[in-house]
Write a structure and sequence with these properties.
Layout (H helix, E strand, L loop, with lengths): L19 E14 L5 E9 L8 E9 L4 H10 L19 E12 L6 E6 L5 E2 L20
Antiparallel strand pairs: 1-2, 1-4, 2-3, 4-5, 4-6
Length: about 150
Amino acid sequence: MEFNFGPIPESSALPLVPPGVYLVEVAEVRTRLNQEGAEMWGLRLVVAGGKYKGTTAAWDNLVWSPKGIGRVKRALRLMGFPVDGKLTLEPKDLVGKRVRVRLVPDHFKDPVTGEERAKNRVPFGGYLEFGEDRREEEQEAPREDIPF
């Protein structure tokens, strides 16, 4: 392969989708324990349609603790899981599920380089019903990408 890198600026940052409301799909789930010892599922959320289809929108954590379990329940319900009673679930069961989320800008310090980096995050109330938070609809995937 031959490529002229002369006019290309060097970058170590991944491209970000603009903040807004998106239909996303769970592409990957990683499990670990948080500082208090509660199980935490890290979800890699990718945009499910439109201009940014396939781009990682954000990583989000579902924390199975008394403080976070209400958020876990809402997220799972909006992904289509029955949460009215007992539910047996493995992290892999979330892969491929779609849900609407609100993305807000955030920053983090890269532990390797020490640089400040931009990222998106899903706020605590960022898992949305269809029809909720329509003020940012222009960032949402096209209607034909929404599963019925």
